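Many introductory courses stop at the sequence. We go one step further.
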Amino acid sequence: MAIRIEGKVISGIIKDEVKKSVEELKNKGVEITLAVIQVGDDPASTVYVGNKKKACAYTGINSKAYNLPNDVTEQELLALIAELNGDDSVNGILVQLPLPKHISESRVIEAISPKKDVDGFHVQSAGALMTGEPGFLPCTPAGIIELIKRTGIDITGKECVVVGRSNIVGKPMAMLLLRENGTVTVCHSKTKDLRAVTNRADILVVAMGRPKFIDASYIKEGAVVIDVGIHRNENGKLCGDVDFDSAEPKAYAITPVPGGVGPMTIAMLMKNCVEAYKLQQTL
């Protein structure tokens, strides 16, 4: 039976660490503040924003919520971001994605000051990750590294396969595994014989966006399997990109969905808010 990598538990430990750091800063008269911008009333986005507000309340981070109508113009959104960039009381700025089609996500992300980019999506943050310079790490890939390491799994020298090449998960995930001395292969929709590649993986990270696609036949005996996907099946139950019931008996360790990677993303966001304050003191 595989070890279940419980993201809910590990994220709780990280949030407690952040809470302690925030308390220490408050004792010195310092308040940490995160500004969260949501455009429209997409139900999934509302849930995500609500979870971020709860995490802020738990860790002691102040949250400022900006709920903009669906028909807000790109110029109005960019003006709000510029205002928050110039507000020294705001340490981190987060714009909940996706945005309505009339707004350019890339322009919005690039408008956020790199020193307040707690999502780690800005091109400057991506460049820092690529070159090994200090900077914000994207929350989901950073959370996955924490899941692996805090489960006692050493990445050094391991064959690591990432399925998916998005800017938000796949590409930064590969760079972070390289940073931890893994040997990394990135797979995507054009990869020939995906099963042959994934069967080499000591550590398999799946972020392909296809429900229950990866079954036991794609998994090497004794592999660590990290499932980034989140979907609803035909019965309305949450599931991932990995067919958990098929994969679990073959894996050494595996993340469940829900309760695996998901909680880590918000925990790492809270950690990035504290890092933002520290970064802003050095600039």
